[in-house]
Amino acid sequence: MSSALIRNWDPENLSFWRQQGQAVARRNLWISIPALTLAFAVWMVWSVVVVNLPAVGFKFSTNQLFWLAALPALCGATLRIFYSFAVPIFGGRRWTAISTATLLLPALGIGFAVQDPTVPYEVFVILALLCGFGGGNFASSMANISFFYPKAQKGTALGLNAGLGNLGVSIVQFVVPMVITAGVFGTLGGESQIIVKGGQPASLWLQNAGFIWVPFIALSALAAWFGMNDLAEAKSSFADQAVIFKRKHNWLMCWLYVGTFGSFIGYSAGFPLLIKSQFPGINALQYAWMGPLVGALVRPLGGWLSDKLGGARVTFWTFLAMIAGVVAVLQFLPSGGSGGSFAGFLVSFMVLFAASGIGNGSTFRMIPVIFLTERQRAAEGKGEYAREQAVRDANKEAAAVLGFSSAIGAYGGFFIPKSYGTSLAMTGGTEAALYCFIAFYVTCVAVTWWYYSRRNAPMPC
C-alpha cells in the first residue's frame, strides 16, 4: 500500500487489518500527531507572546493584549467549521500537508513583526487571526484519523491524536520562554531586544517565539505529503455530511464541548495574562505551561473512565468539578486590599484543567455512542441491510459531529480570555467573568443530566 491513494479500505475486516491496514493506519497516525502538536503550538503562541510585548516596547493596553490572546481562538474555531468537512472532500494526505504548511505564515510573520515596536496594532491583529490556522487543523485531523481505524480502536487512536496534539499548548508555553532568551538562529534570527529585568538590562529574542517552529512545520508538511494516504472510501460531499445540522444531539454535544474543550483552550490562552494581571509579582511563564500539560495528559483518562463508567456519567461529574474549581479560584483572587493566594489560585486552576481534560475525553466518547444508538433505533425491524447501513451512516455522522463540535467548542478559546479583558475593563476585576463561567457550567450539568445521564434518559451513553 505504497500508493498515496488507497482505493479499498476495510479496517473492520480482521484479516485485512492485521495483514495491511494496521501498519498503514499507524503510519498515518504517527505522522498526524506531530503535525497536530505543531498546530496547537502555533495556535496558542500568542498566549506567551502577549506577556512579553510591553517589555520590548509595544504600548498596547491590557484589553488589547487580551484581544490578541483571544483572536487566534476565534479564527481557529470558525475555520474548524470548514475544516471539519475538508478531509472527505480533498483527502486526508493533501489536506494535512497543506494545512500544516499554512502555519508557516503566522510563524514567520510573528518573527519579523515583534522586532519592530513601530509595527501597528492592526498588523498584530492580522497575525493573531492567522494563528487560527493552527486551531482549524484539529477538526480535520480528528476526522481523518477516525476513518483509518476500526470501531474497537477508534477511541484509543483519537485519544492519542488529540491528547498528544493538545500537548502543543503546554509545549509552546514551556519552550518559548526558553528560546527567547538566546540567539538560537544567530544572525539569521535578527538582533536581540534589550529589556530591564530585575533592575538589570537583559537581552530578549522575542522573534524566536515564531521562528522556532518554522523548520519543524516544514518537515511535518513534507512528511504528511510523502508519508500519509488519501482514502477513497472516505470521500463524501458536503451535502452528504450536512445531515448533522438536522440532528438535535449534534447541537447538544456542541454545547457540552464548549464547556469541556472550550474551557481547556480558553483557560490555556488566558492563563499567562490572567496570572500577570492578578499576581504581578509572579513570573507567569514559569507556571502557565502546567495547566495545559495536565489537561492534555488526562484527556485519554477521560475516554478510559467513560469506557468503564459511561461517558455521560463522567461528563456530569466533570462539570460539577469545574463549578467547584471556579468557586475555589474566586476564593484565592486578590480582593478588598488582600493580595490573595497564588498557591491556592494555581491549585484551583489545576483542578479546572484536569476536569476539562477528562471532559474532553468523555464527551468525544459520547458522540459515537449517541449516533450509533440513534441510527440503530431507526433501523430496528427493517432487516440486516438496514442494520449495516445504519452503522455506516452512524460512523459518517459521528465523524462529522466530532469535527463540527470541536469547531463550536473552540469558541471558548475566544470567549474566556476576552471575558477576562472585558471584566477587567468594566469592573476592575475578573470576578464577573468567573461568575458567568459558573452559570454556564450549571447549564451543562442540566443538559447532561436530562438528556444523557439520568435514569430513563432519552439517550443514555
Largest β sheet strand count, sense and barrel closure:
2 strands, parallel
How many domains, as an integer? 1
What share of residues is helical?
A: over 70%
Q: What is the H level of CATH, i.e. the homologous superfamily?
A: MFS general substrate transporter like domains
The number of helical elements comes to 19
Distance between the termini: 37 Å
Low-confidence stretches: none
Query: SSE order in H/E notation?
Result: EHHHHHHHHHEEHHEHHHHHHHH
What is the general shape? globular
Just give the CATH class.
Mainly Alpha
Structural class: mainly alpha
Rg over CA atoms, rounded to whole Å, is: 22 Å
Please state the average pLDDT score.
89
Note down, in words, how this protein is organized.
With 461 residues, the chain is mostly helical. The protein has a single domain, classed as Growth Hormone, Chain: A. The protein is 74% helix and 3% strand. The chain is built from 19 helices and four strands. The strands form two sheets. A two-stranded parallel ribbon has the order 1-4. A two-stranded antiparallel sheet has the order 2-3. A hairpin with a 2-residue loop joins strand 2 (193-197) and strand 3. Helix 3 packs antiparallel against helix 17 (384-409). The longest helix is centred in the C-terminal third of the chain and has 38 residues, at 342-379. It is globular, with a radius of gyration of 22 Å. The two termini are 37 Å apart. The relative contact order is 0.15.
Summarize the structure.
The protein is mostly helical and 461 residues long. It has helices spanning 14-44, 46-52, 62-83, 86-90, 92-101, 104-113, 121-130, 132-148, 151-179, 208-211, 214-227, 238-241, 248-278, 290-309, 311-332, 342-379, 384-409, 412-427, 431-453; strands at residues 5-6, 193-197, 200-204, 230-231.
